[in-house]
Every structure is written in C-alpha cells, then in structure tokens.
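We now fix the convention by which a protein and its fold are recorded. The integers have meaning only within a learned vocabulary of local backbone shapes. The record below shows the convention in full.
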Amino acid sequence: MAVRNEAVDDANARLRAEVRDWLAEHWDPDLLVDGWWRIVADAGWTAPHFSAEQGGRGLHRTAANVVRAAFAECGALRPPGGLGLLMAAPTILTHGTAEQIERHVRPILDGTHNWCQLFSEPGSGSDLAGLTTRADRDGDRWIINGQKVWSSMARECDYGMLLARTDFGVPKHNGISWFAFKLDQPGVTIRPLREMTGDAVFNEVFFDDAEVEDADLIGGAGNGWTVTQTTLFYERTGIGAGGSHAGFPVPGPKGGMLGRRAGDAAHDPEPSSGQLVVQFADVVALAQSHDRAGDPLIRQELARLYAYSKVGQWNAQRAKAEAKHGGGQSIANLGKVAQTRIMKQSASLAVEILGAEGTLAAPDGSGGGRFSNALVFSAASSIYGGTDEIQRNIIAERSLGLPRDEHPGRGQPYGDFLREIGRH
C-alpha cells in the first residue's frame, strides 16, 4: 500500500508541476472569465479525466481535484464547476449522438452553460421511476407538463436533465425518457424553497406546455431509465468521492461570472452554500487552532473520520475502475451511504470541538456560522442523490443478492396502475 501511495503522490506531484508550468505561460488575470475558461477548456483542464476526444486529457479520475488545487495555489481562477460537469456531460458522452455531444458538452467544459437536475417529483422522490411529468410528441418537439422538486440551483441554470414519461402504456420503468431541457422559455416557472439554514439552494419547477426539441432527447424514447442509471452513477460516485469540482465556480451567464475580470473572480470567496461540506482537513485545523488536538476523545474521532474518508476515496476509485467493465453500480451506492456518514460526523465533530461557540449560526459565530450551518445541512445528505434507505435496498439486492420486495403494479402498464390508485 505504501508503494502504491508513493506512486500516486509522485503522479500528483508531476501533474501539479505541469499545471503550474502551463499557468505560468497562460494565466492572464486581465482576461474576462468567459475567455479564460475557453482557454482552460481548449487545454483539457476542465475535465482532465475525460479522454482527449471528449475534451479532456485522459488522466486518472482524481486529476480534477489536483488540477483545481494547483489553479488555486497559483492564484488562477479555477475551471468552471456545476452539475453539468459532474453528471450531464458524462451522461451525454455515454448515450448521446455525436451532434448532441458537440452541442451540449463543449458549453459545459467552457462554462457557457450551467445545468440542474429535474428528476424528483412531489409524489416520486425515492420511487424515482414513479414520476408522472409527461412529454407528448408533437412533430419534431415534445410538450412537457408536470412538476419537479428539490432541483438544486435551478434559478441559476440554463439547462436541466429532465426525466419525463413519454409512454403511459408500458411498465413504469420502460416509458421514461431523458431530455436536455432548456429552462429559459415560456411555460417554465421556478420557485425557491427556503431551507432551515436560511439558504434557498433547492427549487420546485413547474411545466405548463413547455417545449423540448426531439433533437435534445438523449438515448432514445423510452430508454430514459437506462440513461438515468448513468447519471445517478456519476452523481453517487461524485458524492462518494467527496469531489469538489461539482460546485464553485458557478458557470453560465446567470452565475454572474462570465463577463468579469478573471483576476477579480479568482479571489471570490466560495458561496455559503458551497461551504456546507466540512472536509477532514478543516476539522484537523479546527482541533489544532482550539487546542483540542491532544484530547484523546477528539483524536479518536479524528482517526475514525480519517479512516472513513480514505475508505470512501478508495471505494470511489474502485467504482470508477469497475465502471470501465460495465460494473461498479452498487459500489457507487456504498460510496453514497459512506459519504453521508462522513458529512454528518465531520460537521458534528467540528461543532463538538468548538463547544458552545459552535452553536452560533449567525455571521459572528465561528467561521461566520459555517460549522453550525454545515451540521444543520448534513441531515440532507441522507436524502439527496437517493435516500439512505434506497441505497441500502440497492446494495442488498444487487450486491448481496437478497430477494426483491414485491411492488404493486410490477409489469403492469403504468397508466392503468395510476388509474387504479386514482393518481392519473
């Protein structure tokens, strides 16, 4: 293990040096952000783990975090983040046509477009396949009606990964389709949902005869459940790895970054909603600064948190490796459950180290109230990306081979099932 870690460390050190050399030649703080991000995308640094043909550099999965850290160390504006990079781009690369890839992936890599997820509905959260938002074919377009909920950053986004039912006459998993949906159009209403942290990261989205072109149907009509498994895989492995490239800097015109001077944007503090994940290094620094690093109970919990974090990273690497051979799905579910535990424990331990000071959520609290906010927000980690209960069901059925529960309406046309229970 030590030899392997040394090899990884050496590879990361060489990559960091390569990035520094590249930045020394190309970083210009007087460029506008959109121009700078085009240069970064052309060089393959936005998603270095993508292949060269896909707009990356063919590096290992963790290269993205090394690259972003090197940008920050050099004072350069990091590549754009967002759910488009984490989920939409790899999904479209897997299931999209060459034309769809050209049209949608490049604007993700150069920060032109920001994406959100339009999956969950008020009546189908954990039972994602139970969605009832419908898409009706009308020539070369589809007409969308329905509602989505818990859509992170929807107000700041240009496109959404939309799941809609295109066929009610087949079993529920078979009649779903995945669309690249343009949000800025008549018939789309986005309303923020205020959280107990005071933020409004999540939103509900309403569709009233909204439209999406057939050219933006990814993976074919009725194949949306298969496409969705790819999206969820990248979401859960991203969460399980504790990856930081999904969020800040915010891409797209609504994020307010594109027309700014890159040097000014490079020094922006991360938004409060992006500081709700407490990293292991944050907790260690907190224990040292508050003279708690010698406390045996604190040290024990730090050791436990470190072990969880390392196992989570190895688990994510294993999932990525097995994904190349068509596996790794249930490992991603393990990683998601593990990351939930890490999020809750890291925030809880941070507040414990701070004591009474850690309970202040106000700006005059420790870290501007960051750690108390992180503790409150950590409960959400058991829900977003698929609830812990759903993850454990998948692990039990797909990894352990335990028998599946009998679900009402299995194999029945979904429209008939909905009429029986009075929902259609």
The mean pLDDT is 88. The chain has three domains: 2-107+235-262, 112-224, 275-399. DSSP finds 13 helices and eight strands in the chain.
